[in-house]
Amino acid sequence: MEPAARDLSIVLPIFNEVENLDELLGALTRVLQGAGARYEIVAVDDGSSDGSYEALLRLRRTVPHLRIVRLRRNFGQTAALAAGFDFAHGDIVVTMDADLQNDPQDIPGLLHALRDEGADVVAGWRWSRRDPLLTRRLPSWIANWVISRVTGVHLHDYGCTLRAYRREVVKSVRLYGELHRFIPALAADLGAKVVERRVRHHPRVHGSSKYGLSRTIRVLLDLLTVTFLRAYSTRPIQVFGLVGLISAAVGGIWTAYLGFERLVLHRPLANRPILLLTILLTVIGVQFVSLGLLGEMLARTYHESQAKPIYRVRDVAEGPVAGRDDV
Fold first, then answer.
1. Domain count, the chain
2. Which of 236, 248, 286, 305 is least enclosed by beta carbons within 10 angstroms?
3. Residue 125 confidence (pLDDT)
């Protein structure tokens, strides 16, 4: 493990995982203390309703360096990770699920990859995945193949939360929607080096999964957002304007031809649906060009103004706990 720092922040997005917290934090503490690294554990309670927050408060008395960020409601995993990134102090940030399916013992291997290969992002690959085939693994394989082909960043497992990042990566990527799984692609677009390492995957013992087939559809929709942001976020006129110019050109040329037929050849146009199509193409072309110009103004506002957070914090529990001087 890299000997560097409170140098290491472990970010845990938590939503209704009360039955897993004692075992998870115990295992994390043993791994991190055994490696001799300075570290912190940032637990983000994403609006849990099962007593997870109260369990975290109790665990602060026995788990060194635990920081608790409590969100006002359930904002989703992307927002929880974004909150964890904002409150993390380490030079290296490791994310993992709180359901005990990720193994803390894989963390040293991810950190070695950061050091030995000069990587900026090390993505976990659940090599022997313990999830149902039809409802989880098969949709995941399809989604990973599509994402890799579209983004050009070829990973076997975009859905694995167990990852290690250098601090500058997570501080430069803004997250919305379900974009947390696309961080490697977004980071690669900024010039980061992304590598992949096999990690263990355990079957869920306590609690229920928060994932399903519907999430695969949302991921594919977010892929469209990522593709647009990577290719055209600073030049939307090039995609909308191109479509608009082609549509307007086709409509204009067709309209001119129909005008020639009416004025020179004296053919009637009133009963021909093609006239409505040419008008529609021309109008759509003008609208797409206008949309591209509006997109240019919005892009400049987006890149020049301060980004607003996608979460609201209720409170933050940190600092020494009564009876402990090493927290």
1. 2
2. 305
3. 94
